[in-house]
Prior knowledge:
heterodimer; A: about 110 residues; seven-stranded mixed sheet; B: five-stranded antiparallel sheet; 11 strands; about 55% strand
Amino acid sequence: NAGVMQNPRHLVRRRGQEARLRCSPMKGHSHVYWYRQLPEEGLKFMVYLQKENIIDESGMPKERFSAEFPKEGPSILRIQQVVRGDSAAYFCASSPTVNTGELFFGEGSRLTVL
Amino acid sequence: SQQGEEDPQALSIQEGENATMNCSYKTSINNLQWYRQNSGRGLVHLILIRSNEREKHSGRLRVTLDTSKKSSSLLITASRAADTASYFCATDEGGANNLFFGTGTRLTVIP
């Protein structure tokens, strides 16, 4: 049973470009969470999705950021018109149930904005 | 923002010694979890303790929870160099649908 798969692992973008980060949850998991981690800091919650629904996006910046989890395919975190402050590691996690038990994390996507 | 706070921020010990990390949080919780993160990697779940539990063990890990003080501790006994990592506590404060992570303790175990 493959774990949570994130790609790309590393992404370099110039200011103003778009970044798309993908996450395939563990098999049988329908709950996906995205977190952002700045260097030497903890994880900051961004968004929680179930299939085809955004459940909680309270941690998502209001502009330039969007997330989706379609019926088929991976969850996508999209950052438009990236700025240097978007440089961070973005982690996806999945869980099989809605209760906040154990989360299974991917290895992260490290975005560098030049 | 809702977030736990770990202390110390960094801890350096000799192999074989015990390591203790503490976590404080702000509001009511259903459970508290500890995760480990090796440098450049994702987080790995270590242990979950429910709000009605006071202590839990898993191998060389011992976790305590004091809901009256809104604090938890993680003890790693007989540490090994391979235990070198960052350790984070996480809570579902206020019945949130997600986990809020602390700032982490960076543990270095010197061989």
